[in-house]
Amino acid sequence: MDKKKSVSSKFIFFFGSFGGILFGYDIGVMTGALPFLKTDWNLTNASLIGWVTSAVMFGAIFGAAIAGQLADKLGRRRMILMSSLIFAIGSILCGFSPNNGTFYLIGMRIFLGLAVGAASALVPAYMSEMAPAHLRGSLSGINQTMIVSGMLISYVIDFVLKDLPENISWRLMLGLASVPAIILFAGVLKLPESPRFLIKANRLDEARQVLSFVRKPEEVEGEVKAIQETAATEKNSMEKTSWATLFNSKYRYLVIAGVGVAAFQQFQGANAIFYYIPLIVEKATGSAASSALMWPIVQGVLLVIGSLLYIWIAEKFNRRTLLTLGGTVMALSFLLPAVINWIVPNASPMMIVFFLSIYVAFYSFTWAPLTWVLVGEVFPLAVRGRASGLASSFNWIGSWAVGLLFPIMTASMSQEAVFAVFGLICVFGVLFIRFCVPETRGHSLEEIEARGTNHGKKNAEETVESN
Q1: Cα-flanking dihedrals φ and ψ of residue 162, to 5°?
Q2: What letter would DSSP give residue 367?
Q3: Which H or E run includes 463?
Q4: Is 316 helix (H, G, I), strand (E, B) or coil?
Q5: Around Cβ 450, how many Cβ atoms within 10 Å?
Q6: pLDDT digit string (tens) for 403-439?
Q7: What is the pTM of this model?
Q8: What was the pLDDT predicted at 461?
Q9: Within a 13 Å sphere around the CA of 427, how many CA atoms are in the beta-carbon half?
Q10: Which parts of the chain have pLDDT scores under 70?
């Protein structure tokens, strides 16, 4: 423990969120690699293109669920270390895919997805448990900055490598993902374990020491007692926790809120833009997708700027307010091109790219970061690991479905019609926020849990009375 006394809070928050770089890079890298892979392997089947792109998200569905359960037993830190190793190995194996080894590449990307999904579940939980309540929104927002920075890095690397021979460029693009994984592993070796996990494991002295890294001295004992009280209240239910426990009357309200937000973030169609923007530009303009790799960089810059804007405004506006604003503008950005194209059939085909950029700009400082903030702070302690894993799995189910179905949908429908469907989903997302999600800004995790379980208890009593 002496060695860990030198760990600064800045180091903890930086490497605690660095896992976002991993799945940010892998979300973005296929955007540039896909056009070269298609040419190198002569990939023309829309379903195979969708599977190659979405295989990582398919693996992430299971990685997130498994990591959520194991994190409650082994700890957040140890699971992040394991994820970084799997990510590094999987990235290298993808780069060494045999020629025309489509199914091998799909299999390796599913394996890689296990680590990506694990990181998506573990990083928000770790950050929310380390951060003080008044800074939790902005500090957890660092996770989103890491994700979009990873995406931007991958876009830039794709652009730099685009002039290499096709059979080399896409392999390097995929294989270089091992670099941030190795950096993450080295950094996490020095990180402490989450204080909430330590208290649940009855390692109180270690928990006090970890809290001393990120809290004022006078705050440590108060937080230890608050966590102990919550843990004591939930001890019996923790021993009996199962998947069914997530949806009993006590926890249902908060679990549905967190899982619903995570699912809507992806089903609203953001990753259709991030995975396929060169192909979207190709279909709109007729130019080759491999010559449109500047557009992903534009999207990446918008995402990074938006994530930094979020960190600045995170504690100035309520979570629900920002999600409502973002979801409304996102819906209009998807719906308006279809309306304009219906009124003015000869409108510029680049109009859709303009509106997609507006979508990305508002998504970047609302739904993108706030999803992970809410997932990290809304779930009760007794089911937090399992519920976080479930939320991340639903998030990756949406991401996988969008990645798989978008090329199939655009092969049979106009792009305006496809995005209009996503626009309607954005509308439902806004309604979900207004009616099903509690406000969490400025409240401790224990306060959020108390309010949520009281809400569930009230609803259960009203149901009994009505019967």
Answers
A1: -65, -20
A2: H
A3: helix 445-466
A4: coil
A5: 15
A6: 999 989 988 888 889 999 999 999 999 999 999 888 8
A7: 0.79
A8: 47
A9: 10
A10: 1-6, 136-141, 233-241, 288-291, 451-467
Report how far residue 101's alpha carbon sits from residue 180's, in angstroms, rounded to the nearest whole number: 26
For 156-183, b/e burial (b = at least 16 CB within 10 A) is: bbbeebbeeebeebbbebbbbbbebbeb
Task: Give the sign of the dihedral formed by CA 376, CA 378, CA 381, CA 383.
Answer: negative
Gap between the Cα atoms of 402 and 248, Å rounded: 30
Q: H-type helices in 42-135, by residue range?
A: 46-74, 76-95, 102-130
Cα–Cα nearest to 258, from 379, 140, 427: 379
d(CA 385, CA 69): 6
CA distances from 306 to 148, 231, 301, 330, 413 (A): 9, 37, 8, 14, 31
Task: Walk me through the domains of the chain, giving residue ranges and CATH numbers.
Answer: 10-466 (1.20.1250.20)
Q: What is the longest distance spanned by two Cα atoms in the chain?
A: 71
- 293-328 burial, b at 16+ Cβ within 10 Å, e below that, comes to bebbbebbbbbbebbbbbbeebeeeebbebbbebbb
* Cβ 297 vs Cβ 153: under 8 Å: no
Instruction: Strands of 322-432 (E only): list them.
Output: none
Handedness of CA 389, 390, 393, 399 (dihedral sign): negative
Question: The tokens of 455 are what?
Answer: 């809400």
CA dihedral 283, 285, 287, 291 (to 10 degrees): -90
Rounded (10°) angle between helices 102-130 and 384-412:
140
Burial of 416 (0-12, 13-18, 19+ CB in 10 A): buried
CA–CA distance, 451 with 444 (Å, rounded to integer): 11
What residue type is 378 in one-letter code?
A: V
**Can you give the pLDDT at residue 467?**
32
**pLDDT the model gives residue 123:** 80
What are the CA-CA distances from residue 214 to residues 318, 405, 451 (Å)?
A: 24, 44, 26
At 3 the pLDDT is 42
Altogether, the residues listed in the chain come to a count of 467
